[in-house]
Amino acid sequence: MTGTDSGGAGGAGRGTDGNERTFAALPPAQGRAFAQTWWGRAWLKALEDTALDLGQLKKGRKQARDGAVGAVSVRPGRITAVVRDRDGTAHRSDVLLQQLSTEEWDRFLDMVVERAGHIAALLDRDMPPHLVEEAASAGVELLPGIGDLEPECACDAWDLCLHTAALCYQVARLLDEDPFVLLLMRGRGERQLLDELQVRSARAARTRRGEDAGEGSGSGDEAADGAAGIRADEAFAARDILPPLPPPPPVPQEPGLPPSLDTEAAPPPGIDADALEFLAADAAGRALRLLVDALSAGHERQPLDRELTPGQDAVRLAASCGDPLIAVRLAEGTGRQRAELDLAVEAWRHGGAAALAVLEEEWQPEPEALARAKADLAGAWDDGERPQVRAGVAGRWTVVGADVQLRYGRDGRWWPYRKVRGRWGAAGPSAADPASALAGVGAGA
After folding, report:
1. Residue 421's Cα: distance from chain center in Å?
2. Distance in angstroms (rounded) separating the CA atoms of residues 22 and 29
3. Residues 201, 204, 206, CA angle at the centre, nearest 5°?
């Protein structure tokens, strides 16, 4: 990779401050990811989150991987390259990025000067996360977000096309090598930035020396007090005094998109990319629900969820998905017939793991619990209104003359069941008394 800074006024295509860098065409990127650094991956995430057509992304990634992107010109607010189709047709492609304002650059440079480590990291061609986080806290967004990359291409596509996508993938490789490329896109070249940092660093050093001299011009007692600092016993006594935690960030409206595993390279043997993408999306959804629960009032008093067995989790996945192909695979993986999985899913939707246990487990209530359940059953109706119920095994009572059943769960609640095509299935949520449970399925109300 080669790069040159072009200074001077005028010149077609140069930025407003005369900064421009041109990087020679990179060789094909077979067998490697386009971004190795975290900021390079953040650039690609902004690209992939913005794209409306994932098919164009895939084609552009293939073009970049095959070396179809020519020399890349980087200027404030714009990157440009010629991208060739497989038939050799050349298209000039540009991607625009909003430049930082003068006020934003002032805040960023002042923030960098305050920490010598920030300057050292930039000189080492590194962009540590805390530098970007502190810049964002100062109101300066260095990395692009959703919708920040604006494509323009000679192929006349109205949105991101395979040519501008290929250019963005190639730029991710440039960013890996030199984060100053990103800063140039945001409006300042490397030489200009370093010169401004040097001026501000010298000014800050003079200010500090002046403050030190002012403090030293007081009386001897004041100088001695200033030099003494904080007593060790006072510092030790304050060791447990911590500042209050910042307020939690706003909760996202929906879970984020998991990374796409659709690549040119085939997955290793035994790895199912579609299954991994499905599980990643499910994990993102569960993480969001856990976050919402954790931030809700009284969460600390709520009981923790039990860890699910693989069979229970397969039913949960089938209940949350609705894709018949995935349901077939989950049934096969758990040794269930498809009809059995459908019954399990219906039970899960009525009450989660507790409802699934009532469907699939047979248990014999303790004598005390059984006596209490029978008393509840007997006292739930007035004389003459009580439906005739035939007692069965495992706390199951069937209504005579109706395909309706009551099941007494381990949680002490009553669960309504109905027989459909010869199979008993959950017919509604549980209730604290048998009459309410039967009323839910229209029997014995």
Report:
1. 43
2. 19
3. 110
pLDDT tens per residue across span 262-288 = 776 777 888 888 788 888 888 888 888
Amino acid at position 247, single letter: P
Cβ atoms 173, 29 nearer than 8 A:
yes
Q: Which H, E and C letters describe 199-211, residue by residue? A: HHHHHHHHHHHHH
Pick from 438, 403, 400, 443: which is nearest to 419 by CA?
403
Q: Which residue has the tokens 């200027």?
A: 75
**398-444 pLDDT, tens digit each:** 888 888 888 888 888 889 999 888 889 998 888 888 888 887 676 44
CA R_g for the chain: 33
Amino acid (one-letter) located at 299: H
The CA-based angle 294-296-301, given to 5 degrees, is 75
How far apart are alpha carbons 387 and 316 in whole angstroms?
A: 35
Under 8 Å between Cβ of 76 and 17: yes
Report how far residue 221's alpha carbon sits from residue 95's, in angstroms, rounded to the nearest whole number. 63
Whole-angstrom distance, CA of residue 391 vs CA of residue 16: 87
CA-closest candidate to residue 72, choices 181, 190, 183, 231: 181
Give the chain's end-to-end CA distance (angstroms, integer): 80
Q: How far apart are CA 126 and CA 353, in angstroms?
A: 49
Q: How confident is the model at residue 13 (pLDDT cuts 50, 70, 90)?
A: very low
pLDDT of residue 84 exceeding 80, the answer is yes
How far apart are alpha carbons 43 and 50 in whole angstroms? 11
Separation CA 316–CA 351 (nearest Å)? 11
Which residue type sits at 1?
M
Scan for tokens 């305050």, then name that residue.
Answer: 114
